[in-house]
Amino acid sequence: MHTFAPVSSCRHTTLEIATEHRTQFVDLTERIETFIAGEGFQAGLVNIQSRHTTTAIIVNEHEPLLLSDFASLLARAVPRHALYRHDDMRQRTVNLTPEERENGFSHCRALLLGAAVCLNVTDGRLQLGRWQRVFLVELDGPRDREVSVLLLGDVGR
């Protein structure tokens, strides 16, 4: 059993990811583990947060057929070519950019998945189960993306 002192340190990094496909699962686990090890954290929490409204952060298994199943599930649950009011540029008046995409489906898919996960760090290691991995889920790619990683806890002495 571990006992923890109050949070004594906080570190932050931003992971930059260039996605290649409209829907893509990018495994971030090794980059997060490297960050934790490099900061010398022994115990605490790591929060992994997407900085975009058309991506998500999930924890699941990295198995290619399963990832394909996930993409198919999202496509069935939120079809790309359904009608989304967000995509009607004649009526929409806010949050518009010159390179605006018709991506209402991407926003709706992101709503189902979540923008962040918070995970435990113990003995300097990310506490994941045997098959668990941390993914950025691209839902409107390809694009350049950023993931904010915040580490809170005790640095080894």
Please give a structural write-up.
With 157 residues, the protein is of the alpha+beta class. 22% of the residues lie in helices and 38% in strands. The protein is built from three helices and eight strands, in the order E-E-H-E-E-H-H-E-E-E-E. It has helices spanning 29-39, 64-77, 104-113, and strands at 9-18, 24-27, 41-50, 55-61, 116-122, 125-126, 132-138, 144-155. A hairpin with a 2-residue loop joins strand 5 and strand 6. It is elongated, with a radius of gyration of 18 Å. The two termini are 19 Å apart.
Topology:
Elements (H helix, E strand, L loop, with lengths): L8 E10 L5 E4 L1 H11 L1 E10 L4 E7 L2 H14 L26 H10 L2 E7 L2 E2 L5 E7 L5 E12 L2
Antiparallel strand pairs: 1-8, 2-7, 3-5, 3-8, 4-7, 5-6
Produce a short descriptive summary.
The chain is an alpha+beta fold and 157 residues long. 22% of the residues lie in helices and 38% in strands.
Helix content: 10-25%
Low-confidence parts lasting 5 or more residues at pLDDT below 50?
none
Largest sheet: 5 strands, antiparallel
For the biggest β-sheet, the strand order reads: 1-8-3-5-6
| Share of β-strand residues | 35-45%
SS field, number of helical segments: 3
